[in-house]
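Posting for a labmate who doesn't have an account.
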Amino acid sequence: MSAPDHFGDVRVTEHRHGDDLLSAGLGLRGLAGMPSAFANPSAPTPAELRRRAIQSSWKGIADLGPLGGFGTVYGAVPAVPGREFTAFATLPGAHAPHRVLVQVPDDFDRTRRCLVVTASSGSRGIYGAIALAGGWGLPRGCAVAYTDKGTGAGYFDTAEGTGVRLDGTRAKAGEAPLEFEPVGVAADAGIAVKHAHSGDNPEADWGRHVLQAARFGLAMLDRAFPNEAPFTPANTRIIATGLSNGGGAVLRAAGDDSEGILAAVVALEPNIHVAGRGRPFYDYATEAALLLPCALAAPEFDGVPFARVAHVAPPAWAIRCASLRAHGRLSAVMPGAQAAEALAMLRASGWQDDALAVAASSTSLDLWRAVTAAYASAYLKRPAGAMPCGFSYRAQIAGIATGVDAAIRAAWWSDGSGVPPGAGVVLAGGTDFSPDPALPGNLCLRELWTGQGDDARRLRDAVDATAAALPRVDLPILVVHGAQDGLIPVAFSSDPYVKWLRASGRSPVFWKVPYAQHFDAFLAFPDFGDRHAPLLPFGYVALDRAWAHLADGRPLPEDAAVRDTRPRGAGALDAAMLALPER
């Protein structure tokens, strides 16, 4: 048996009459529009913060643009009235809580009880998976339980001593329970972020976060429908689903589920690590941050979105090649040969050309450095003010480090991604004044993986603690991954995970979707969206098939059900391009 769950005070809110669970009353058009407004930007209300957090989460995951097909070819955003139950939950031994939330629709299906449990994608906040889990479950009468899995945008301002209350508004430390309240941090340490600075290595516990959220979901269904309690895994089907880090979290939960809580798992583009197979994210991400800017100067990437600016390789690519040569990382002398050498090194370590081409987006947006700086701090359990490699998070206005504007601070919880930069917070440090200023930080982050120092050994041990365990033999598992994923390449994650399951006597379904990549939201970019297909509709269909298997005894689909998808092209998406499997 697991240790008793610890949940803080539960906040209950009702969402009807112009408000709802799925879109906070915005509907599809409102979700796709401008950020919802605050009447007083310096002091938004809990309802205003919730509305914008839901909108930000939808826009961060789904392609809601006019060509993307959401609402016409797949998906819908109906009004779903109901109640929300939210609390701070704490795992045994954890320093910081994770936020849990359950949405219970008024039309909850009492005859076929269903609870969807999910974890936020990336390092997003509590609504980070609403486009997937809420978008599928709520219109079908399922309750949906969410966890931020120890991440989220409950940023703590060390200078002001404020963090985020349960309702999303800000409060001084000691005035109310906070989403994240670091202890003993200096007032000049900058902005403290839960994922990076909690001291917990939250990724090691992502599976336990999901299972605790499921138990919270059952408890809140007892509260919502006391005359029909108890709600248990024996009488309520629980489907775990998530994407990206959330996909990895639900697969981790599958391996940690010693009590048989979960009935099925549907994981999209999961960040999943199997000991001795594939490569963990920190390894290939720090490698990409170092080598890929140089490799993108190679002619193989001519015409690739984000790899060229006005059809020309940006100077930063050649500068990175020269910097790597100066640091002894490359032996070639001429720029073209240096780019070819860097590309060959990436290919030799397992990178496939399709993933490298799409990874140009993450490289040009400096995502590799931003994400791995946070992960390194989490793995080494460093507080704000003592991040590895000289990094820190600071407030910035118009490019100048400064104190935090009250309106910016107030919107962190609704607008932040959980890993700066963004929402008025920047990643500072780890740079120099050379033509390649980001190189020192990238070299340092990579050395934490390849080096032999104490910190490097501790970091690798922390990554080892994130490895997946085998799920039970009879647990239905469906894995859906874009064949052209450039952030979490399928060759490093889902491929080795699925092969491991099959070698261990499990029978997962594996849909490798042609032309799909990691960020559906990026499909709104000109040219980039023309070359790809969205992944989210395949997640919806996988959930349909999982439910049909559980509720109606229908066989699970074959891997080959996904093979005929085509890129969207310059026009609007249509159903023939998706070639979705039979529901």
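Reply:
Got it, the structure tokens are right above this. Residues 206-224 form the longest helix (19 residues).
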